[in-house]
Amino acid sequence: MTSYGFRLFQLELVRRDGRTPQPWVYDKDGQQFSRSAELLRLLTAKCTVVERGLPLGPDARPLTDAERRTRPVFTIERIDALGPSIFLEIRYGRHRDEDVGLPIADDSGVAVDLTDIAPTRRYRIGIFPPSTGTRGVLAVEAISRACPSKYLVRWARSWAQEHALTDPAQDSQDWHKVTARAAMDPGLLENYLQQAEAQTIFLVQRHETASRRRDTERFRIEAAVLSNQSESVMTRVGDAIVAEAADEDADAQFASDLGEILGHGIEELDIDDGWVVVDIPAVGRQQISPSRIPEIFVYPIDNERPSDQRFRTEVKAAVLRIQRSIGATIDMSSW
């Protein structure tokens, strides 16, 4: 059964390499400018452009054909300005090992070669700049736990840098990037952490394949969480749940922190991935890391794809409910 819902994130702007949140409205040469309008123009310019995987570094070689086949595809299909807010529809998915698609409605259709096709789904996204202050909200649809927030944030950053480097009217060193951290009712997070009991730590070092994917395990460490380690582990679990959504090194850093708790030099083993298995009464065991967020932090809507209107209504209610607790002031009147 396919489940539909969404996740919420605290959305902020920082300078290229900075950490201090910047205002979304600024003055220049006696005129007032909106960074949300600049973001809208940036995303509109990239509408229908198909990107593969996450952005590569400036010195990385281009992807080979084999590498392109293994990367998820990501593209913006639709973008609308709803007052100060931005509504997006994106497509996201990846090719796995399917090679032929067969008709499911009747026997009159023909088989379709899927060798060079990545099946995708449409995901809806709301971007809500703050009406005052520096903190806005990002809402990203989650379908059966898949939520491509990382791809939107990382590509938005990459496009902003690209624009700064190619637009002669802009200072190439003065550009801003979006950051996104999980937004939720603080009481919900506190209650979750109080109920959860850390059971086991898993740490993994992976082998990079020829296609530059780190899918194959070199080794795995499994360790029970001792009573004198539990508090430190659950502190890291809480940090992981609200970690920056686009940080590609978040799982590796989380694993290193867990290795430090375990001791015996484990943190020196160049661990790529790690997670904690926690036990929740009446729920069971769940895996937690920055990329493994429990469904309790996904706002559910339905087991069938909701209409745009219902999606927007549910998102609006959730944003209005939590905005004060996360320190955001959002104008939702046009949403």
Which short descriptors sum up this protein?
about 325 residues; alpha+beta; 2 domains; eight-stranded antiparallel beta sheet; four-stranded antiparallel beta sheet; 7 helices; about 25% helix; globular
Which helices and strands appear, and what pairs or packs with what?
Blueprint: E1 4-15, E2 25-28, E3 31-34, H1 35-45, E4 51-52, H2 65-70, E5 73-82, E6 85-93, E7 100-101, E8 112-113, E9 121-128, E10 130-132, E11 136-143, H3 149-166, E12 176-182, H4 186-195, E13 197-207, E14 216-224, H5 230-241, H6 250-262, E15 273-280, E16 284-288, E17 299-302, H7 308-322, E18 329-330
Antiparallel strand pairs: 1-11, 1-12, 1-17, 2-3, 4-5, 5-6, 6-9, 7-8, 9-11, 10-18, 13-14, 13-15, 15-16
Helix pairs in contact: 5-6
Structure class: alpha+beta
Instruction: Name the beta content range.
Output: 25-35%
Query: For the report, how would you describe the main beta sheet?
Result: 8 strands, antiparallel
Instruction: Enumerate how many helices there are, as a single number.
Output: 7
Cα distance spanning the termini: 29 Å
The overall number of domains is 2
Shape: globular
Give a count of the beta strands, DSSP E runs of length 2 or more. Answer: 18
Note the run of SSEs as H and E.
Answer: EEEHEHEEEEEEEHEHEEHHEEEHE
**Low-pLDDT ranges:** none
- Helicity, as a percent range: 25-40%
How is this structure best described in words?
This protein has helices spanning 35-45, 65-70, 149-166, 186-195, 230-241, 250-262, 308-322, and strands at 4-15, 25-28, 31-34, 51-52, 73-82, 85-93, 100-101, 112-113, 121-128, 130-132, 136-143, 176-182, 197-207, 216-224, 273-280, 284-288, 299-302, 329-330. The two termini are 29 Å apart. The protein is built from seven helices and 18 strands. The mean pLDDT is 87. The protein folds into two domains: 4-182 and 298-330, no CATH class; 188-288, no CATH class. It is an alpha+beta fold. Strands 1, 4, 5, 6, 9, 11, 12 and 17 form an eight-stranded antiparallel β-sheet that branches. The protein has a four-stranded antiparallel β-sheet with strand order 14-13-15-16. The protein has a two-stranded antiparallel ribbon with strand order 2-3. Helix 5 (230-241) packs antiparallel against helix 6. 25% of the residues lie in helices and 33% in strands. Strand 5 and strand 6 form a beta hairpin.
